[in-house]
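We modelled the chain as a single entity of 303 amino acids. Its sequence is:
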Amino acid sequence: MRNPNVPIGYRFSPSVEESLKVYLKRKILNQELPVDVIPNVDVYSCGNPRQIPFGKFCFRVGEFKHGPDNEWQFFTNKRNENPIQTTSGRWEELGDEEIQDGDDGSIGFMRELVFKYSNPEDKEKEKEWYIHEYRATPANFTADELVGDNVQEKFVSIFFGSAQFGPLYHEAEDEFKHGPENEWHFFTNKREGNLIKTTNGRWEELEDGEDKIIDSDVGIIGFMRRLDFHYSNPKDTEKGEEWYIHEYRANLAYFTADELVDDNVKEKISNFVLCKVVCEEQIPPPKPPTYSSSDDDMVDDEE
């Protein structure tokens, strides 16, 4: 079951600054959130992390989830003690740090806690669960916003908890990146052939590579092929980056007869694709040593 508040394919991954300056601040001021997907949960009343009521809020297998598979976000009441005892173990503090924005202004604090089981048998199957507590600071609020005891009280009683955060990619201040910082999605025209040349290199499909069939409960809905980028200039390959594309194209059989009446639709099925472009950092191999002409002593290129 998908959450009706958000579109299909949506993933929730705000930056730390966005979490503090937008979500937590608006929550404290009882203002509308950009998207209402963060539940109120008393996290520390749960015996262990697996007892946290993810349920309809975080959507387990087969249901919609707002972010990465190992991350969950909550608003909850702050607990000041360290460690925080539960019926099955304790949350131990690892550190507390001030969070600053891009202008070096203080916007809040983050406390990290890790969960430790009390039962030795549980420790053997223990996975590392940890929480990042994000707390607001009055410096992030205007004088008018600070009027009222209720707001002051919420500074110390409500925080934004999360397993972890991945920074968002921002091309410009008002632009939003929808996924991992090394992935981008585009609609584009399909290019035939397993070798697509560019001015700086080529996109090449593996020789033995076969298009992957994308299957679902209604049958084959499309196909995916992978193309890797190869630079023409050997110096460019030393950048330590690996670029590749996952090209997704629709299956004609997935469309109904009514949808295929328009010839323009058939043409788009053949010539229009969705591409996921991925950049992975590669560790360059060490340069081989060279030998001097005078003897067999190895000489380092960098010396």
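As a brief sanity check on the tokenised model: The chain has a mean pLDDT of 72. Residues 16-163 form a domain with the Metal Binding Protein, Guanine Nucleotide Exchange Factor; Chain A fold (CATH 2.170.150.80).
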